[in-house]
Amino acid sequence: MVLVSPRNPLNIGAVARAMANFGFERLKVVAPFAAHWQEARSAVGAEALLGAAAETATLVEAVAGCTLVAGTGTLAYRKPEQRVVSLPDLGELVEREMERGGRVGLVFGPEKHGLTREDLSYCHLLVEIPTDARQPSMNLGQAVAVCLYELAARSARDRTEAASVEGRGPAAAAERLELLAGVVERTMVAADYSPKTMRGANRHDLRLLLRRLGPTERDLRRILGLFRRILWRLER
Amino acid sequence: MVLVSPRNPLNIGAVARAMANFGFERLKVVAPFAAHWQEARSAVGAEALLGAAAETATLVEAVAGCTLVAGTGTLAYRKPEQRVVSLPDLGELVEREMERGGRVGLVFGPEKHGLTREDLSYCHLLVEIPTDARQPSMNLGQAVAVCLYELAARSARDRTEAASVEGRGPAAAAERLELLAGVVERTMVAADYSPKTMRGANRHDLRLLLRRLGPTERDLRRILGLFRRILWRLER
Question: What pLDDT is recorded for position B165?
């Protein structure tokens, strides 16, 4: 991760924080404006990462050792001279580069105007974050967070592709739904809610309703308990 | 987009900026700490959006009209009580909800500790941003940017894919679930199902249950009708 001439130390700290959030480690800062940027308070939980960051005088020095350099920016104000990659497609390129033993540098420009044409001339490609055309300019810390999320989420997605786990327990079995339907129906009758002529239609609708709701077995036990109690009170 | 008790106006501004970046418009702020949050300087290019943001006293008011409420947070410090969805999977759910005419609310907690267990009981699901286990806690503005990027990038990705429409109507809105919860609770009391000491816990569980079941407005009217009838009989 390379920041070119960031002006506000709070933004540098925010970048460090996002890096820690998504498991990235090496930060380089090119020609920063402020002197004490390594003590930025905004680097919550990333103080060590920020302290270990290197400062260089030029972008060339900062990207030394990188086999793929990706500059970031919007296309709104420029005619790109290098390959343009939309952020959602960056992950695959980065992964391929790492697989073949390469090292990737992601470069962000200063807050006000982003990377210059010259900065970009050190980049293999220009990464575009797909923002709204009416307001394309992002806050530096937010832009970094979005990029690192995309890269981290992508590798996580690939790792767990198969296992899609839902946070719910298993749905209640058919015979349990029927049991509940029976108790609810008796309750309807006890409460004079279901006139005789409507009973068949109501029973049908109730079955559909319970399947639409799809309660888990635990949910079903809870609902059943309430209706049994109500029924007992109504029939008393 | 709903922010619950944000402390730092600069963060609120950063949220507004990210919303403008990714084409989102409606911001609600619940019980903010600072008075002049609508003038936050950090809302670069999003001054109008921030000025049009609504302030409410409670989360319930803020999510009125929403048919799917998604709370955000990390699982690091809590045992979730609702369905957990990893951010990369949220887009599909949001889209499906919008396709069937629903409205989605995305809720973020205060900077220090995030949403409380009670806040989350108003949510259908908990969205987890997949962060590094050693440093899961994100800056508020960055977390919002990452979520909105995911949603915006996804819908751009999918616009071309085939639409899969479900045969259900829109889910019932948040305030309707509250109405139903109130009637069910009164029924529980009338049936001596809910002893006084358990009432708070039961109310909490009932909120969770209704959101797990996710009834449509039509389903809700039907259930409400039955419980009103029961209540009338029990209280007679």
Answer: 34
